[in-house]
Amino acid sequence: MENKLSHIDDAGNASMVDVSEKEITTRTAIATGQVVFPQEVFETLAGQDFLGKKGSIIQTAVIAGIQAVKKTSDLIPLCHQLAISKIAIDIQPKGNSLIITCTVKCNERTGVEMEALTGVSVSALTIYDMCKALSQDITITDVQLAKKTGGKSDFNR
């Protein structure tokens, strides 16, 4: 079987994949990423239970990530609109970082990898936005698909 880009047609043009003949299956994707802080900034935030002048940093990031998952097809041009059945975003401190995990689930003809990656990304951007007054030396790293199930193939990093 020859590997080729699924969103490019034979003429080299962008094309949305036709999923009409695919079987509806339960599909799950888990993406992860992290926001890394300078140690002093992280200690300050942790000492305030991650509450800033704008409110709960973690809860605001969770809500933003959930909203982003639901808007993925509006943001990524060739993504299909999906009836999402579950979104879970978990944000946990580790070292001088916040580790973000986004799990998305649906019963559809195509997967939810882009939705999970979008949820992590927007959660991370929200954390950055809420903390940038303390430092611009905050980095968003390691946004990646950790696991997917359903469809043609499963993946587990």
Elements, N to C (H/E) = EHEEHHEEHEE
Which CATH top level class fits?
Alpha Beta
Shape: elongated
Rg (C-alpha, Å): 18 Å
Number of DSSP strand runs: 7
CATH superfamily: Molybdopterin cofactor biosynthesis C (MoaC) domain
Sheet with the most strands: spatial strand order: 4-5-1-6-7
Q: N- to C-terminal separation? A: 23 Å
Structural class: alpha+beta
In which range does the helix fraction lie?
A: 25-40%
What does this protein structure show overall?
The two termini are about 25 Å apart. With about 160 residues, the protein is α+β, with helices and mostly antiparallel strands. Helix 2 runs antiparallel to helix 4. It is built from four helices and seven strands, in the order βαββααββαββ. The longest helix has 19 residues. The chain has a single domain, classed as Molybdopterin cofactor biosynthesis C (MoaC) domain (Alpha-Beta Plaits), CATH 3.30.70.640. It has a five-stranded antiparallel sheet, with helices on one face.
Core attributes:
five-stranded antiparallel beta sheet, 157 residues, 33% strand, alpha+beta
Summarize the helices and strands and which ones pair or pack.
Elements: E1 25-36, H1 39-47, E2 51-52, E3 55-56, H2 57-70, H3 72-75, E4 84-94, E5 97-108, H4 113-131, E6 139-149, E7 155-156
Antiparallel strand pairs: 1-5, 1-6, 2-3, 4-5, 6-7
Helix pairs in contact: 2-4
Précis, in short:
This protein is of the alpha+beta class and 157 residues long.
